[in-house]
Design goal:
The protein is built from seven helices and nine strands. The chain is of the alpha+beta class.
Length: 317
């Protein structure tokens, strides 16, 4: 009886030890910032701790796509997962069977890791979840939108002032079409940028906000040129056009810095560039109204003085 009881107890213990156990990790997240995805698989109760007696198998939705045979140290993988490798072959004997996959091949879903050590085996399931990575802070996104709206709005106001001072029909139509283009592109950029994260849509939105803003620079020049009847003062060129070009360059540099960092940084540089452009649009409007009006008032005075001078000359004769 004692021998029978000891045999049953020993069998129960052996049966329990035949099952490999894992660290309980239910899921991992993949974001756009991940260059590679690590699927964790950590065995906690290896006995022999030798690669030679181990075999690892990975499945996606119960379909095998990767395996590693410890006795030969050979790897077999599906062509759709050509980047899949064990995170560390050396650490496999310590229980680490974690898998590394490039972000382009890591498909969201349920992955199962099956590890065999001699005659013992076990399996764990990890869910890979795709989450849009962190994007620009909401304050920065709002300021980027605000300053471009400001710049475009003051362009339309400048256009109204220019038309009131007299333009040809062709000039007016060309300026209106250009204004509509920049306005529509900006609205599309706002819509794409607003959602959380910094995925391809958000990146495209920031690009549509920053890059087409270059149209505002030549438009500013043409508006001033029309108002001043081709006698554009150098001060206006330097202060408005050159500084607005500098603001655009700063915004483009900020855009490039945002695109090369993940999560995006240097949104403040984009804001600074667009703020300069918006400020120059205001300065251009003030300059256009104030000095443009002065020049307009001087023209009739000159035309009146010329007949008077002619009259004086006749009387003297």
């Amino acid at each position: 009886m004692w021998a029978l009881g000891a045999w049953v107890l020993l069998g129960a213990v052996c049966a329990g030890s035949a099952q490999l156990q894992f660290n309980a990790i239910k899921s991992v997240e993949q974001t756009i910032c991940n260059e590679t995805v690590i699927l964790p698989c950590i065995v906690t109760n290896l006995a022999q701790k030798s690669i030679k007696v181990m075999f690892v198998k990975w499945k996606l939705e119960k379909k095998e796509f990767f395996s590693f045979e410890g006795s030969t140290e050979k790897t077999h993988r599906n062509k759709n997962f050509s980047s899949a490798v064990l995170e560390s072959v050396q650490n496999l004997s310590l229980g680490s069977a974690s898998l590394s996959i490039s972000k382009t091949q890591a498909v969201p879903g349920n992955y199962s890791c099956e590890v065999t050590e001699s005659n013992r085996e076990g399996e764990t399931v990890i869910e890979l979840i795709y989450r849009v990575g962190p994007g620009l802070p909401q304050v920065e996104s709002s300021l980027i939108i605000f300053f471009l709206v400001w710049a475009v709005l003051f362009y339309w106001i400048q256009l109204g002032v220019t038309v009131s001072k007299g333009t040809t029909f062709q000039e007016m139509i060309g300026l209106i079409i250009a204004g509509i283009i920049i306005s529509v592109v900006a609205v599309v950029g706002f819509i794409l940028l607003v959602p959380d994260g910094f995925g391809p849509k958000n990146q495209a939105g920031l690009g549509l906000i920053v890059l087409p803003a270059v149209i505002l620079v030549p438009l500013q020049y043409f508006l001033l040129k029309i108002v001043f009847k081709n006698n554009l003062p150098r001060f206006a060129v330097v202060l408005v056009v050159v500084l607005e070009s500098l603001g655009y360059l700063i915004a483009v540099i900020g855009f490039a810095l945002c695109m090369t960092a993940c999560p995006p940084k240097n949104g403040a540089v984009v804001i600074a560039g667009l703020a300069i452009m918006a400020l120059m649009a205001v300065v251009g409007l003030i300059y256009m109204i104030a000095l443009g009006s002065c020049k307009k008032d001087q023209l009739p005075r000159k035309s009146v003085e010329e007949p008077l001078n002619d009259a004086k000359g006749v009387m003297l004769e």
